[in-house]
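Re: that backbone. Tokens:
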């Protein structure tokens, strides 16, 4: 990769951008970090809305290319830094499975989690993107029970996404603490890069809360 490539990463702690922070740590990828204090509403300022009009993180700007949406960012970055070995290359026998689990997260897990959190009925089975919550979760739990990673013995960017998301959702969003999920989350959370990202994430959150408290005083 050219050393002239410039990536800007828009991030806020304790959000979906936290998993992208862990991905950057695993990749060892150079980037300029732009920390947004969402408690102060910085995601709604014109400068960031010009990057993502929805005011959501994560978002990256790679040269002249804007990439939003968590899974798109994961695919883009893991492919961009192949030396890290976090993405099966096109043509690799495991590429399809790798993409499957990344997209399953966005297409099935996230909608199911939101419906569950908001106590919404998923609707008729044929109309729901994920069928029902238990069936959706059983698919990923069954895969993880085969372990140790989503691609068997091969660790990938998909594991960073799922490991961080399951950690949060079991703690705060009512995902049951099934043995296969707990073991998997512990395995991913023990990785040095993921630990470093979590420490940075918590430190930024403490700064933001302190700033908000100081403003209110």
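Recovered sequence:
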């Amino acid at each position: 990769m050219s050393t002239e490539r410039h990536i800007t990463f828009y991030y806020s702690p304790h959000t979906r951008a936290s998993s992208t922070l862990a991905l950057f740590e695993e990749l060892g990828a150079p980037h300029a970090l732009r920390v947004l204090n969402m408690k102060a509403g910085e995601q709604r300022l014109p400068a960031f809305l010009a990057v993502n009009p929805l005011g959501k993180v994560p978002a990256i700007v790679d040269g002249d290319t804007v990439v939003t949406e968590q899974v798109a960012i994961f695919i883009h970055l893991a492919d961009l830094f192949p030396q890290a070995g976090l993405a099966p290359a096109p043509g690799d026998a495991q590429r399809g499975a790798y993409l499957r689990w990344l997209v399953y997260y966005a297409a099935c897990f996230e909608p199911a989690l939101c419906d569950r959190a908001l106590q919404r009925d998923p609707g008729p089975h044929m109309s729901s993107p994920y069928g029902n919550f238990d069936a959706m979760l059983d698919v990923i739990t069954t895969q993880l029970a085969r372990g140790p990673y989503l691609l068997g013995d091969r660790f990938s960017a998909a594991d960073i996404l799922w490991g961080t998301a399951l950690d949060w959702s079991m703690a705060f969003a009512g995902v049951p603490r099934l043995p296969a999920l707990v073991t998997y989350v512990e395995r991913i959370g023990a990785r040095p890069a993921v630990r470093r990202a979590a420490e940075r994430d918590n430190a930024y959150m403490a700064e933001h809360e302190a700033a908000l408290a100081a403003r209110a005083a």
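Residues 192-216 form the longest helix (25 residues). The chain has two domains: 7-85, 95-193.
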